[in-house]
Amino acid sequence: MQHIDFIEIHASATDVYVIPDDRDDVKAEYKGKGNLKVSKNGNAIKVSLERSWFQGFNFFWEKKKLNIYIPEDFNEKMAVNIGSGRLHFSGPSKNHPMNLDELSLDMTSGMVDLKNINVESYHHDGSSGNAQLDNITAGIASVKMSSGNVDMSHFKGKLNAKLSSGRFKGQIDELNVPIDVKISDGIVSLDLPKNADFTLTSKVSSGLISCD
Question: Which listed residue, 10, 69, 77, 143, has the most CB atoms within 10 A of its CB?
Answer without folding.
Answer: 143
